[in-house]
Amino acid sequence: MSDLLFIRVLFVVVIAAAAFFLKPVAVVDPWVNGALGLLVGGGIVYFEIRLKEVSLKRLIGAAAGSTLGILGAFLISLVVSRAAPSNHASVPFIQVGLLLWMTYVGLVVGASKGDMLNLSALGGLFGGEKSAKHQFKILDTSVIIDGRIADIAETGFLDGTLVIPQFVLRELQLVADSADSMKRNRGRRGLDILQRIQKMLQLNIQILEDDFPNVREVDMKLIELAKVYNCKIVTNDFNLNKVAQLHGVEVLNINELANALKPIVLPGEAMRVFILKEGKEYNQGVAYLDDGTMVVVDNAKKMISKTIDITVTSVLQTTAGKMIFGRFDERVHGVHEKVHTEKHDRVATRDPHQPGQPGSPAVTTNTQ
């Protein structure tokens, strides 16, 4: 038995024994008093265990909120006691009800808003809170409209608190009310994505009222807000990404995440692609993978609207994404007449003739 567990058990036993001998409820049996003391002691220990799981920011927010609630209840009680007759029996009940109600509301609201406190700015005793930076992340308008942030959140890869500034909501509403039908649909999709995120129980969503009236551009407001709270910005805006990095603000770019998760192919591997159109160079065909990666295939101009097997010759990584270059040789590669108009099948095998790879296409690797 650990020391902490021993102290907890001893505390509960002492409370139960005190209730048994002191009989706080004199009209009942001493054993009932002991059982009540046991329940009270167990409740106190349970409260202590749950309290240890709460962050310092939430504790400070809850304390401040409950203090303000008690102060507000006291001031309202003074007004009630002056307005009502002094001998009215309902006055004490109203005062106690106001005290409990406002204390509870202040406690809950203060705890929920405590995550937004920037304790590292106080230094000293709270300097250790710097290690907890980036606990919450700011969403910009573009990443909300994009919609993929909701899919990522559902997988559980996002932790902490997602912050949505009020000025981002205003910009999103302006887009949703635009006269342009395309912009209007994008804005409404963004609002739908926000509703979807708010329904995820595993996420903590905060609407932040902070604003910077002297800053006109929303991107710069996001950067200033990230500086104040020392947190990250979640976006898919290339320009915002670069500007934020110049200001020393860390960015989580959804497009960079998507590029990092694209399938890895190496020169010499076999692939099955659907040739969609003619390429820019002589006798080239162009295909696209399911994730949007462009595949440029030599000797495939005549294979438009056909599914063929190719050999990867090189892979080019650019800032805009990844491009794959391949070669088609009708002497060794298979041609499949079936046309795919919605989803292109992709088969990537290191060597289709290796044993232990059932279902591999009957092609050979081009060694040219």
Number of helices: 11
Calculate the terminal CA-CA distance, rounded to whole Å: 71 Å
Largest sheet: spatial strand order:
3-2-1-4-5
Largest sheet: number of strands, sense, barrel closure: 5 strands, parallel
Please report which band the strand proportion falls in: under 5%, 5-15%, 15-25%, 25-35%, 35-45% or over 45%.
15-25%
Average residue pLDDT? 79
Uncertain spans, ≥5 residues at pLDDT below 50?
123-134, 339-368
Tally of separate domains? 3
Order of secondary-structure elements: HHHHEHHEHHEHEHEHEEEEEE
For this structure, what is the CATH homologous superfamily of the largest domain?
5'-nuclease
Number of strands: 11
Helical percentage = 40-55%
Rg over CA atoms, rounded to whole Å, is 32 Å
Tell me, briefly, the overall form: elongated
Write the layout of secondary structure elements.
Blueprint: H1 3-22, H2 30-52, H3 56-83, H4 90-113, E1 136-139, H5 141-146, H6 148-155, E2 161-165, H7 166-176, H8 181-198, E3 204-208, H9 218-229, E4 232-235, H10 238-246, E5 251-253, H11 254-260, E6 270-278, E7 284-288, E8 294-298, E9 307-318, E10 321-327, E11 335-336
Parallel strand pairs: 1-2, 1-4, 2-3, 4-5, 8-10
Antiparallel strand pairs: 6-7, 6-9, 7-8, 9-10, 9-11
Helix pairs in contact: 1-2, 3-4, 7-8
